[in-house]
Design brief:
- This protein has about 450 residues and is mostly helical.
- It is built from 22 helices and no strands.
- It is elongated.
Length: about 450
């Protein structure tokens, strides 16, 4: 057990001094090394110590909700995120006012313990909380939730943009002062207005903190189709891919608690997004080399991380090392014992690698489990299960599963589900054969741009 929650006053009364930024990073590293319970206990214990530790506890709660999609956990995550927002705003009324006014207010009428760095940190945390609240709204898949989530995201973006600009200005001012010759020491003027000592290290960590959300916004919006991008830009959302990637790279190399998350975001972009969408005809090989470089630098830090093992498998799959990729995905699946959503992405990749190898028996077992457990698209997983099961020769069972596709069809505007329904109906009506089901599997590999990963010998057979 983590024991009772510790406030800053209680910790300091025992003569202890805690670096909350270092402790928060330690907690996130625990989380990524599959120490989910230990990380949760650490953040819960120091939840009331500082806004940063409170945010860490809320982030773990949010992640738990997203991994299970259980209504109770999603409600708990919302309450935790709002509690963190409240804590950030409690000593920081008017959190959205400009930093110039805040600095002026701090110089003219200083408040003990509330610094420019502290206020910026709180603003970034509030923006982070708003992003996660928006994600929890989107999960409900209701029109009102989408509108609410979009509005929350717009507020979050404004805060990220403002904080990013303010931190860059503070860094430039610090560098100018550092480059000037220090004045000769003189007598201390007790009547002078007290000023804060802002260090380069604190500013660097703060920039790393804001760069995660700032960069992710830029990157995600830059991937929106061009005809929608103009509308989104008009609503005040930018979309500069280069800016997004450079910001995430900066965040990943910082000492902020979100540095490991920025690293994962970069791996996701280079190994999942870039190869599938082939954005702007981008060089996917260059992306793979970058992903391999990131993994080589970080692998020693995360020896027990199911996510890092998953991305290792993605790189191997894209390099057509299918057997090695399968080993990595199975290892990641084993490591992710208490993380259902991570298990699902591993199962999905195991299913695809098995299809690439024309091992339809292993493929249908993975897709069948996804059909039964996943909330994403049971209709699509049912179609893949039927196709792979039919390719093994179990045609009666395949026909039954093709009937289930129609029952599981829920989202009429989803092209993947429309495709799955149409193809399942055709196979069911024409009485499926092993050859037809095998061709249907190859068709899916072709449409999902996975055919180049198949060996020539497998395709000939």
């Amino acid at each position: 057990m983590a024991g009772p929650e510790q406030t800053q006053q209680e910790v300091e009364a025992r003569g202890e001094r805690i670096d909350d930024a270092e402790l928060a990073l330690q907690g996130i590293n625990m989380l990524l090394n599959n120490g989910f319970r230990e990380s949760d206990e650490l953040f819960r214990k120091y939840r009331n110590y500082s806004p940063l530790m409170s945010f860490g506890a809320s982030f773990v709660s949010f992640l738990n909700a997203m991994m299970t999609f259980e209504e109770e956990k999603m409600q708990t995550a919302c309450e935790d995120l709002r509690a963190t927002e409240k804590l950030c705003e409690s000593d920081n009324a008017g959190v959205i006012e400009t930093i110039k006014n805040k600095i002026k207010k701090n110089v003219d009428s200083p408040r003990p313990g509330v610094t420019v760095v502290d206020r910026l940190q709180r603003q970034i945390i509030v923006a982070d909380c708003q992003v996660y609240l928006a994600v929890l709204s989107f999960v409900k898949q209701e029109l009102s939730a989408y509108i609410k989530g979009g509005w929350i995201l717009r507020k979050a973006w404004k805060m990220y943009n403002k904080c990013h600009s303010d931190i860059v200005l503070l860094q430039e001012a610090y560098q100018r002062r550092a480059s000037q010759e220090a004045p000769p020491p003189g007598p201390v003027n007790d009547n002078a207005s007290p000023r804060e000592e802002v260090t380069a290290e604190a500013l660097g960590r703060l920039k790393g903190s804001v760069s995660f959300g700032y960069g992710l916004f830029h990157l995600c919006i830059s991937m929106v189709p061009p005809h929608l991008l103009k509308i989104i830009n008009l609503l005040g959302f930018p979309g500069d891919r280069h800016e997004g990637l450079s910001s995430l790279t900066y965040a990943s190399e910082s000492k902020d608690m979100k540095a490991p998350l920025a690293t994962l975001a970069l791996l996701w972009y280079h190994t999942v997004v870039l190869p599938f969408f082939a954005l702007d005809g981008s060089d996917t090989q260059g992306g793979l080399l970058e992903a391999k470089s990131i993994l080589q630098r970080k692998e020693a830090e995360y020896p027990h991380s199911s996510l890092f093992m998953f991305f290792k498998g993605r790189i191997q799959r894209l390099e057509c090392q299918i057997n090695s990729a399968l080993t990595s995905f199975h290892d990641a699946l084993e490591l992710a014992t208490d993380q259902r959503e991570i298990q699902h992405v591993c199962l999905y990749e195991i299913g695809w690698c098995s299809m690439i190898e024309m091992n339809f028996e292993d493929a249908y077992k993975s897709f069948e489990r996804l059909k039964d457990e996943s909330r994403w698209s049971q209709c699509y997983y049912a179609y893949l299960t039927g196709v792979c099961q039919g390719a093994t020769g179990d045609l009666d069972r395949a026909k039954t599963i093709f009937k289930d596709v129609q029952k599981l069809f829920k989202r009429k505007n989803n092209q993947i589900e429309q495709f799955s329904l149409k193809k399942a109906e055709r196979l069911r009506k024409t009485s499926p054969t092993v050859e037809l089901c095998t061709l249907a599997a190859i068709e899916v590999l072709y449409l999902w741009k996975a055919l180049p990963n198949c060996s020539i010998s497998n395709l000939r057979s």
